[in-house]
Amino acid sequence: MIEIIQKAMxxxxxxxxxxxxxxxxxxxEDGEGFKYPSVNKSKCINCNKCETVCPVIHxxxxxxxxxxxxxxxxxxxxxxxxxxxxxxxxxxxxxxINQGGxxxxxxFDREFQVHHIGITSTDDLKFLRGSKYIQSRIEDTYKEIKxxxxxxxxxxxxxxxxxxxGLKNFLGKEYDNLLTQDIICHGVSSPVVWEKYLNYVxxxxxxxxxxITFRDKTFGWNKYAVKIEGKNGTEEKSTFLENEMMKxxxxxxxxxxxxxxxxSKGLKRSSDITxxxxxxxxxxxxxFDDNKGIDLVVxxxxxxxxxxxxxxxxxxxxxxxxxxxxxxFSMNCSSRLPxxxxxxxxxxxxxxxxxxxxxxxxxxxxxxxxxxxKLGIKKVSRxx
Length: 384
Ligand SMILES: Cc1cc2nc3c(=O)[nH]c(=O)nc-3n(C[C@H](O)[C@H](O)[C@H](O)COP(=O)(O)OP(=O)(O)OC[C@H]3O[C@@H](n4cnc5c(N)ncnc54)[C@H](O)[C@@H]3O)c2cc1C
Known about the structure:
- With 384 residues, the chain is α+β, with helices and mostly antiparallel strands.
- The chain has 2 domains: 7-53, Alpha-Beta Plaits (2-Layer Sandwich); 60-384, no CATH class.
- The chain has 16 helices and 13 strands.
- The protein has helices spanning 15-19, 49-53, 77-82, 88-98, 125-128, 141-150, 161-171, 191-205, 244-250, 281-284, 302-311, 323-326, 329-332, 341-350, 353-360, 365-383, and strands spanning 25-29, 35-39, 68-74, 102-108, 114-119, 155-158, 178-183, 209-216, 225-230, 235-239, 273-277, 295-299, 315-320.
- The strands form 3 sheets. The protein has an 8-stranded mixed β-sheet with strand order 5-4-6-7-11-12-3-13, sandwiched between helices. A 3-stranded antiparallel β-sheet has the order 8-9-10, with helices on one face. A two-stranded antiparallel sheet has the order 1-2.
- Helix 9 runs parallel beside helix 15 and helix 14 packs antiparallel against helix 15 (353-360).
- The model is unreliable at 380-384 (pLDDT under 50).
- Flavin-adenine dinucleotide binds next to helix 4, strand 4 and strand 11.
């Protein structure tokens, strides 16, 4: 029976509760809004399936394949402008849908909480497109995927590395008709902190929220902004350096506790393909960064590489040294746990969101100067 000995190790992937034949495991929310398994011991038959599928107890299998990596972006300028990086996710997803498949990814609900949903139409890709920096709830997604896979229909699952590990362990075997894609992941934020931020924004704009984009590119990809549209017609854009939620996220004060010691790091992964922001692209291909967004793509399996070849004609794509992937900090390393994480969480109880962020998430002057110089250098090299 799954037992949470160290709460900070549970990634909240839903594999244990999805596989329980007695349905005696439920996912319960803690004070920060993160879900953890809770076992109804009176119904448990001690089959241990829940422990077998847990990706923290048993690492998900990786493939015997020499990783290859690419810099890529969609040739479709609209898709690219609406995506966090180069829009590669949409290109892969569209290809699967055009082959009659189902795509599972993270989408906002009406309250702007994040859940995994499945779609079968390219019109619905807009719901999945774009990064959401809050933990997405898997709910029945793994079970739905298993049922679809049995029908030979193609499935594309996109999520965090721990969610792909959870899915792979839950399935317990390879399916030719399943393509999995994870991301290089900084971590996922607390749904309760997110809700407090949303309430703070609603007060500020005197309106309910109509739409949120974490990665608006009005000021360019390198200086991405959070865009919030109110139902009253207001529109707010603040860069990741100014936006309060992004400051809290990037200063690591509201990540899931397991993100500080992530079990799914490393170049070898259970996924077929990994996507990430290719911030350092100019170090590998001079002048490639046009400030519109570029994906770093890593293929981890024969299946991933084969599918990649199929979509390449829809992309601007160049192969790069695999060092580009290893050089991305969050590929191999977990985000650092700040000493003041608990203080930040407590301060949200009796301060406004903006005040709590001001106290605990101010970016030191040295770092601000460094970022400004970095962005400045990118601008100058683009002009050349
Ligand atoms: C929580 C998070 C942390 C990230 N951290 C890093 C990082 O540290 N370094 C880096 O280089 N890149 C990071 N990325 C990846 C990067 O921001 C882009 O998502 C990636 O490059 C794909 O971009 P795209 O333009 O191809 O597609 P997009 O359209 O931007 O990708 C959309 C897909 O991403 C997945 N996704 C979005 N939000 C979530 C979520 N909350 N949970 C699970 N899956 C989600 C979905 O399934 C969604 O369908 C992160 C992404 C997320 C979601």
